[in-house]
From TrEMBL:
Pfam families hit by this protein: Flg_bb_rod (PF00460), Flg_bbr_C (PF06429), FlgE_D2 (PF07559), LlgE_F_G_D1 (PF22692)
Subcellular location: Bacterial flagellum basal body
GO CC terms, sorted: bacterial-type flagellum basal body; bacterial-type flagellum hook; cytosol
Lineage, uppermost ranks: Bacteria, Pseudomonadati, Myxococcota, Polyangia, Polyangiales
Location of the Flagellar hook protein FlgE D2 domain: 165-307
Domain Flagellar basal-body/hook protein C-terminal residues, every copy: 381-424
Record-given protein name: Flagellar hook protein FlgE
Function: A flexible structure which links the flagellar filament to the drive apparatus in the basal body.
Origin species: Labilithrix luteola
InterPro entries named among the record's database cross-references: Falgellar_hook_FlgE_sf (IPR037058), Flag_bb_rod_N (IPR001444), Flagellar_basal_body_rod_CS (IPR019776), Flagellar_FlgE/F/G (IPR020013), Flg_bb/hook_C_dom (IPR010930), FlgE/F/G-like (IPR037925), FlgE_D2 (IPR011491), LlgE_F_G-like_D1 (IPR053967)
Family: Belongs to the flagella basal body rod proteins family.
Record carries keyword Repressor: no
Domain Flagellar basal body rod protein N-terminal positions: 7-37
Gene3D superfamilies: Flagellar hook protein FlgE (2.60.98.20)
């Protein structure tokens, strides 16, 4: 009877709209869930007879929910361990979720460091990537990314590089060079902190003294009481001479005092190479380091390559996915690189809760690779991907499903009234 069919169709509509309301409710509830992807209800009509007949249908079914993997907005957090995906792909994490040990996939890049140095997500699952060896070479297979929590050893300074201009119009100091009165017997001074083999810091003072037109001496001093055997005052540990061309380029460098130093308690005869740029006489331009122009004497840059021992103080993720350990001595060491997984069908991924998905037969196997390669998403460090739920759209959907629910309820009550009329005719 068509009246009963109408009633059953109304019931199917109530069931379908109830399911759809659940989908909308889940979307709205996860408006602020990082990396969340909204879903939508997929409806299909139900036939009441054989395929091809002209009989009225028997209602509707909510066939399934479909996830919408549209890009969510990116928000800058300033947190060095936060990273967002921009494009197609997923971070890979591994561990146990609700008793199931597996590899999982996520868009939520809220990472942190476990006390053993392993990079983990908010649920404590190990983030997967390509671990770097001691030489910085990346492995070809994926695994946990782990930073060494042991202190890194010190590195003795082996080179000092200074870029400066020496004023061509400067006047030669009247007094002879005096290492114990260097400021009064030189034209320009600078200082660098250098390190010995056990990581102790020492100040190396560098003085530049004009001796004639186009002719300068340099002197590198250390404190005598910091050297092996002790001593007082300043001790010259390196020195030499610059010759400049008439247009201010460095013609030649002559080193008169070798740059070997023996600090107390450290490896003796520590060699420190001095880099003032490549002179014309050595095949360079003479303009890369020390120059002599008629402008104020000044140092524009200086650096040295040593450092003290350091402890792990944090982690920083670069935009190419490189995971770096940050140490208290200012050094940054690459520990590995994040892997990004790509699937043939994101829609086929299975939801696992906790902002996670699992691979299924429908999704295909994960294809691992570097961010930005093979169509994979690029990374935005210091940011997170927000939920892609549009609350305004969800409110519209909510009203639409509510009205449809009311309409289906009306179908049932109307069919019931008609049945009551039929019953009364019989009476």
């Amino acid at each position: 009877m068509s009246i009963l069919k109408a009633m059953y169709s109304g019931v199917s509509g109530l069931n379908a709209e109830t399911g759809a309301l659940g989908v909308v409710g889940d979307n709205v509830a996860n408006t602020n869930t990082i990396g969340f992807k909204q879903s939508r209800a997929i409806f299909a009509n139900v036939l009441g007879a054989a395929i091809g007949s002209n009989e009225p249908g028997s209602g509707v079914n909510m066939v399934r929910t479909q996830q919408i993997f549209a890009q969510g907005g990116l928000v800058n957090t300033g947190q060095s361990t936060d990273v967002a995906l921009s494009g197609d792909g997923f971070f890979v994490v591994k561990g146990s979720v609700d008793g199931v040990q597996n590899s999982f996939y996520t868009r939520a890049g809220q990472f942190t460091l476990r006390n053993d140095g392993t990079l983990i997500n908010a649920d404590g699952l190990s983030v997967q990537g390509y671990q770097a060896d001691l030489k910085g070479q990346l492995q070809t297979t994926t695994g946990d990314i782990k930073l060494s929590t042991a202190p890194i050893p010190p590195k003795a300074t082996s080179s000092m590089k200074i870029t400066a201009n020496l004023d061509a119009s400067a006047t030669e100091p009247a007094a002879a060079w005096d290492p114990n009165n260097p400021s009064a017997t030189s034209n320009l001074a600078t200082s660098l902190t250098v390190y010995d083999s056990v990581g102790n810091a020492h100040v190396a003072d560098v003085y530049f003294r004009k001796t004639a037109s186009g002719d300068w001496d340099y002197h590198v001093l250390a404190k005598g009481n910091e050297l092996a055997g002790g001593g007082t005052g300043n001790v010259e540990i390196a020195g030499g001479n610059f010759q400049f061309t008439s247009d201010g380029a460095l013609q030649t460098i002559t080193q008169s005092t070798p740059g070997n130093v023996s600090f107390a308690g450290a490896t003796p005869n520590q060699a420190i190479a001095l880099d003032f740029g490549k002179s014309i006489g050595a095949g360079g331009t003479g303009l890369e380091g020390i120059t002599q122009y008629a402008s104020t004497s000044s140092v524009s840059s200086q650096k040295q390559d040593g450092y003290a021992s350091g402890a792990l103080s944090g982690v920083k993720i670069d935009s190419d996915g490189t995971v770096n350990g940050v140490y208290t001595n200012g050094q940054t060491i690459a520990a590995g690189k994040l892997a990004v997984a790509k699937f043939q069908s994101n829609d086929g991924l299975g939801r696992a809760g906790h902002n996670l998905w699992v691979a299924t037969r429908d999704s295909g196997e994960a294809a691992m690779g570097d961010a930005g390669s093979g169509g994979r998403a690029s990374l935005v460090s210091g940011s997170l991907e927000q939920s892609n739920v549009d609350v305004t759209q969800q409110f519209v959907e909510l009203i639409s499903h509510q009205r449809a629910f009311q309409a289906n309820s009306k179908t049932i009550t109307t069919a019931d009234q008609m049945l009551q009329e039929l019953m009364s005719i019989k009476q």
